[in-house]
Amino acid sequence: MGLSLDVFGISKSYHGQAILRDCSFSFDPGRTYALLGPNGSGKSTFLRIAALLEPPDAGQVRYLDQGVLLPPDLSLRRRITLLLPKIGVFNTSVFNNVAYGLKIRGRHASEVEARVNVVLERVGLFHKRRQNGPDLSSGETKRLGLARALILEPEVFWLDEPTANIDPKNTEIIEQIMLDMKSGGKSTIIVVTHDPAQARRLGDHLLVMEHGRIVPL
Domain 3-216 carries which CATH code? Predict the structure, then answer.
């Protein structure tokens, strides 16, 4: 079934300004959610907290596997992935950038090579696997970041504006990859976007961040 996620009463403030206010929502396994909302509404803050990268001031983030509550340890963190808008690229080949996550998990070299090649083909970067990562275009860099996430086969995949500031061709490629993931039904996908049309194309469920809370549309 995969992981389910319940968020209860999350609150977060920065410098005395409330960003999230008693924010609660339940995410079902294998579904795709598109989260809309204006800049500064708290979407990215919510993603960081829900992806266990930042603690809330109050409330709980609860990941469950077939109803069993999981501790927020390394094992759980390796089952979820957050893709941020700005991709940090290692000063090495495209192949090595994508392989890194598997290498630190101790995977055998033959498995690493096979899986990286498959993922690079999937994102349309196989022909650039030996190119230095920092030399990619902005759209290709977005796809590289997506490849580094996909190689880990996340059960819950958070994407913060994955097509921001890139051209239509790269946007189309990334959207198609996400639609392929959605049809596979193996991952719960939560994508933040400012584009209502994109939200409708990608999401099973449309959500909006209003006054620090998540509201279904």
Answer: 3.40.50.300
